[in-house]
Amino acid sequence: MVALDENLARGGKPSASRMTRIFNCPASLLLNAMETPESSAAADEGRMLHRVMELSIKDANDAERAELDALLKSLNDEQMAAYQTAVKLVSESVLREHNAYNGDTMEAFEKRFFAASKLFSGQGDAVFIRDNGEAVIVDYKFGRGEVERAERNYQLAAMAVLIADNFDSEKINKVRAMIIQPRALDKSRRITECEYAKADIDAAREAINAACKEAIEAENPAQKCGYWCKYCPSSYRCKAAQEAISAQYKLAVATPNLTIGAHNARQMFERAQLVKKYCEDVLAAVKKYIA
Question: Which of 50, 163, 231, 237 has the most CB atoms at less than 10 Å from its CB?
């Protein structure tokens, strides 16, 4: 029921964590709302590791320190390695500089912020604010698959807008946003970051508000398939996905000697992933019905 609790917390409005999907496919908001909230071992592990990171970095009280000790003892060797990598990365890239700053600072951990437009919200894993108008957003990704780099991540763009909206947009002049992915096999991708100037934040606010407004208010919001479908729980009943799969099938049948090259490798890979996910979701839905 965690997914349902999260939906209630954000009032049924778009969340920053799904902003890439909503920005590219506004129809996904209503489609996803029709799904039965589910959890998984990977999701439960991710929430637990996020809690461990929060307790490790914040100024914890006695009860929280006791909770941290208990959680650390429950980690297996692989989870402990991921945790230690994440702590090292955030310490070297953020905490050292932030703690050395002489001015006034603010921190927020696992806190949900709401946009001034009331159209979306987002929960920041770790947010650091300085009185010189600079802010840092840290997003932990404990999954094993590769995620978008920070500069392509709409979730971080949405979080930059939320920080500006909640901490005086006239004073926030720079937001540094980073993704920490301790389990990435490519060590160069374990931390990626980008920077938003005030003009970038204003542009992101306008674009994201427009996408959220369409997702919430449009009678027939746009549907579109792409890499953002990877984690969409509704692809098995999405008309755009079905049309893309039909087109892929026709292409495969019509061109048995199809060549994969630089001109089409990315497109074919994304289409193949969509077909695979569609089939897996349909099988899961059928098994659930039979059970």
Answer: 163
Q: How far is CA 266 from CA 149, 189, 190, 261, 262, in A?
A: 16, 19, 22, 9, 8
- What SS3 state is found at 21? helix
Q: Which helix (H) or strand (E) holds 191?
A: strand 191-197
Enter the pTM of the model.
0.80
Distance separating the N- and C-terminal Cα atoms of the chain: 20
Cα atoms in the Cβ-side hemisphere of radius 13 Å centred on 85: 19
Our separate counts of H helices and E strands in the chain read 11, 5
Q: Return the DSSP state at 116.
A: T
Q: How do residues 274-284 score in pLDDT, each as one tens digit?
A: 777 777 777 87
- Determine the distance from the C-alpha atom of residue 160 to the mean position of all C-alpha atoms in its chain, rounded to a whole number: 13
Partner residues linked to 137 by β-bridges: 127, 177
Q: Which residue, among 71, 41, 36, has the nearest Cα to 142 in the 3D structure?
A: 41
**pLDDT per residue as tens digits for the range 117-153:** 999 999 999 999 999 999 999 999 998 877 888 888 9
Alpha carbon distance 261, 57 (integer Å)? 46
